Amino acid sequence: MTASGPLADPRKQPHDSAGGDDFDIPFDLPADTSAPRPRPGGIAARAAALANPGGPSSPGGAYLDGLNPEQRAAVEATEGPVLVLAGAGTGKTRVLTTRIAHILSLGRAWPSQILAVTFTNKAAREMKERIGAMVGEQVEGMPWLGTFHSIGVRMLRRHAELVGLKSGFTILDTDDQIRLLKQLLQAENIDEKRWPARLLANTIDGWKNRGLSPQQVPAGEGAAFANGRGQKLYTDYQARLKALNAVDFGDLLLESIRLLRENPDVLADYHRRFRYILVDEYQDTNVAQYLWLRLLAQGSHNVCCVGDDDQSIYGWRGAEVDNILRFESDFPGAKVIRLERNYRSTGHILGAAAHLITHNEGRLGKTLFSEGESGEKVTVTGAWDSQEEARAIGEEIEQLQHHSHALSQIAILVRASFQMREFEDRFVTLGLNYRVIGGPRFYERAEIRDALAYLRVIASPTDDLAFERIVNVPKRGLGDAALRQIHEHARAMGLPLVEAARQLVGSEALKPKVRLTLRDLVGAFDRWREQMANMPHHELAEIVLDESGYTEMWQKDRSADAAGRLENLKELVRSMEPFENLVGFLEHISLVMDAEGAGGGDAVNIMTLHSAKGLEFDTVFLPGWEEGVFPNQRALDEQGRAGLEEERRLAYVGITRARRRAKVFFASNRRIHGLWQSSVPSRFLDELSEKDVEVTESRGGSGWGGGQSGRYGYGPSRFDEAQTFGGSSYSTPGWQRAQNAGRGESHSGGGGGRFSDSGFSDNRPSRYAATSAARGRVIEGELIARSSGSPSAFKRGDRVFHQKFGYGEVMTVEGNKLTVQFDKAGEKKVVDSFVQAA
DNA sequence: TAAGGGACTATTTTT
DNA sequence: TAGTCCCTTA
To answer: Which Gene Ontology BP annotations are present (predicted)?
Structure first.
C-alpha cells in the first residue's frame, strides 16, 4: 500500500514564478537537439514547416512514424482550431502528445508557450511522461501542462491582488466548503434538515460550473433554495471566502475568468504567451472551462481539442456535451478530424458497443472499426441474484487464471459502488486477489485531514476552518461552548480565530480550566511555528502529531481501523519529505488529490464505470445490467432522455474498455440497501447487436440450472427443473413456440412501477427477461425472450409465494409482471414466474 | 462534555 | 444492510 505513496509526487513550488514574470524568457533548449532550430514561431520556422510538412526529414520526425493518416493529420494540423474526435481506443493520447512533440520539434514554440490542459492530475502526469519520452528534458520546461485547476491556481497566484485575494490564499476542499456553508445556514436560521449544506454546496458548484457569479444566477434558480434565499447565500458565501482569503475549486476557474476579463493587459500577456493550446477530454468541459479556454484561445487561435462525445459521462457534474457538439461554430474555420480506427478491442466487442451507442441521438457520429480479429463474442449471462452473479464471475475469473490470465488484466466495472461489496465478499472467500479502485481517497480520510489541519494552522494562522477542525481533536475539553466564545470574540474584534483565542486567554472571560487548555494550545502553535523555520517540515509534522496528542489518540483507540490510521499518518509524514517546505506541500495537497500508488501486485480490479474511463483491460466484467441499476433509475428520473443517453454512453465506455473479452451480467434479484428488489434486465442488453453477442448460462450457477438447489440457501425452486434448463440451448420447438406465442403483444409498461415510467416505456419486446424461462437464448441466430411473455396465470387477489419476499397477495397484473403486496417485504413488482401459487 | 441510541438515507467524482 | 448525523442522557 505504500510503495509509491499516494502523495509522493512533488510538483514545482507553487510560488516559483509568482514574483518575476517569466514571460518571454525561453526555457533553455536541450543540448542534444539534432536539427538546427529556428526561432520559435519565426518566419524561418514556419517556412520550413510549410516546405516540408512533417516529412521524414523534419526534425525528430521519427515520432511520426507509425501514426495512421488521420492521426498524422491531427498531429500536423498545428495552426488554427482543430477538433479531434477520437473514439475509444483510437490513440487519442498518442495524438495529443505527439502533437506537442511535433510543435516543439519544429521549433514553433518554446515549451513554456504551450498550454496543455487535462482534467486529472493522473492524465497530466501521463502526458508529461509520454512527451518526455519523445522530446526529453524539454518537457520540464512546460509549466503550463496541468489540470484546469492547477493552471487556474497558477494564474491566480500571479495576479491574486487583481481579484481581491492575497497570493497566499488557501484552497478549500469540499469538506471545508460544507462546514462553511453550514455556518451560513445556521446564521440564517435555515433548517438544515430541509436544506442541507451539501445540497447548497452542489447548487453553488453547479452555478460556478456554468460560470455564474452570484449576480448572474437566474432569479428563479436563486430562489429555488431555501425559499428564495439561495442567491443571498451564494453571495454571502463568496464574501466569507474573500474574508478568509480562500477560494473553492469552482473559484479557481471563475476567478481566473474574471481576472482575464477585467484585465485586458493580463489577458494580452497570456495571449502572447500561449502559442498553442491543447485540451484533453474536451467532452468533459463545463461552461466555465469553456469560457476560460475561449478567452485564452482568442490570442493565437491555435487550439486543439481532443475528445469523444460518446464518452461524455460527467454531465451530472456540469460537463456540457454541447461544447464538443458546437465546436465548429465556436471556433470558426475549425478542422474536424475523426479517429475511427480502433487499436484496442476485437471486432465483436467493437460491434456490440458501436451498435449500442447508435441508439443515442445528438451525437457527432463516428464509426469505429478495427482490422483485428473479431475474437470472442460479448457474452450476456443472467443470474438469479447478485450473489450468484458474483459467484459466476468469481468462477470465470478462476478459469481465466488457470489459463494464465493476469488478474491485473481483469476488471469488474460496476455502475454504483454498492455493487462492489458482493464481489469483495466473494473474492475474500475464494482467496482471489482484488483491489478496489476509487474508494475513499487518502486525503479524505479523517486522520489525514486532521493532521493537515494542524499543519495548515501552523502555516497560515488565519486559517479559521482548519483551526476549528482541530481545536478539540483530540478531545481536550474545548467544546462547543468554548468555541462559541472564541467565535464571538473573533467576530467582534474582526480577528482570525487563533488571534481571538490568544486574546481570550489573556482575559478573564473563559472558565479557568478552558483558559488553561486554550493557552497551552495557542502556545503550542506558536512554538511549532517557530520550529518551522529551523527544522525539516516532515520532522515538524511528527512533532506536532506527537505533542498535540493526536497520535496518542489513535494509539489508545481500540477500534479495528486505528492501526490503519496510524499507518496513514506515517505515510503522510513520509510523503512530505520530497517537498521543499510546508507551504509547498500544502499547496500540492490541496490540488493533487488523486491517490494513486498502491500498485500492489496481481489483482482483479474492481471499480465504477466512471473511474474506468481511459483504462483498458483484456477482460472486462460488466455486472448489474438491470433496469434501475443500469440505467440508473435516478438518472432517468432526474434527467429524462439526457439521463438515459448518458447512461448509455457509460455502457459504451464500459464495453470499450475490453481488449479481448467483455462479459455482461444481470441478476434477477438484488439486495439494495438491505431490501431485496427483483429486477428486469437492462434495455441496454437489447441494444447490443445480436451478431456480436452470445447469451450464456450462468456457470457458477448452482442457483440456476445446476440442479443443486438449496445449496446456497434459496431452497428448492421450480427454476431448477429440467424443463427450464434441460439441454444446452433453448432451441427446442416447445420453447420457441412459447416465445413466439408472446410476440406482437404489448402491455402497458407504465403505471408507477419502480422501473418504469421515466418517459421511456419499457414495453418493447426484450430479448432478455427476468423470467426463469426467458433468459434469452440463441434461437436460429436470434436472441429472443420477452419480459412481456404470455399473459400471467395469476390474477388480482391471488396468494403467492416468492423465494425472497415470502408470501403476498397479487395487486395488479400487467402481462407477466405482477405487483404483489408481500406480507413482510411490502409492495414489489415481480415477474410472474418468480412466484408460485400459495 | 462525551458516549450511546435512534432516525435517516442511501449514484456516478475531479479538483 | 450500514454508515452518518443528531439528539438525548449520564
So the answer is: recombinational repair; response to radiation
